[in-house]
Amino acid sequence: MTETSGSTRATGTAGLPAYEDDAPGAPDAPGTPDAPDGGAVFGQRLVTRRGHALGVSALVVATAAFSVPLWGEIHDRVVERLDTASEGAVGIGTSIAWCTSLLANVLTLGLLGVLVGALGAVATRHLPLPGTPNTAAEPGDFTRPRRAFTLGWVAFVLAKLTVWTVAGLALGHDVSRAVPTVTHLDAYLPLLPCALLLAARAAGSAWPRAAATAVAVTAVYATALWLLPS
Fold first, then answer.
1. Measured at the alpha carbon of residue 215, what is the angle toward residues 212 and 219, in degrees to the nearest 5?
2. Is this prediction's pTM over 0.90?
3. Within 13 Å of residue 223, how many CA atoms lie on the same side as its CB?
């Protein structure tokens, strides 16, 4: 019988061997200090490579879905410019213009997601904000907070698209411009700090620092939109 090296085995559930980390009374795993609440645990499970990929996929699919009403507006503009063209030519022109618009919107929202993720990771780790940064477990790891804030941006985009479209349909307004309005300063901006607050909590920040980080990133985002030409 050879000796077991590495960590000590213990008897696990269903007769399976368990290591020290799985045994009763074992310390918390790195990144989950002081046994966080259920919401934080659920958020940390989302901040994985698979969760990040699903979030990015949801952003692309939602952008395409909410861009469908824009087809009619683009078609009308193509007809105005090519009033003597055949219906086939108008359809091809509309398809090219719609796909170009979709690609531009996806790239814009994706780039903003990358920037928000990086800014949120830096803010939650290094900026002098209220609360103590959670760097004891993995002091050099930016992947988890970056993924968390990127998913927070995705949640904001999905929430704003849904609320804006539902409100427009309820009031009888045109909803074809739903995707371009994501980057507009309007009454839906408070959705962003709410999403980023949950993202910071998923990254392991305590409530005071999570709230301060969410407000700081939102302020930078709003200032950048305000300074950019409309």
1. 140
2. no
3. 6
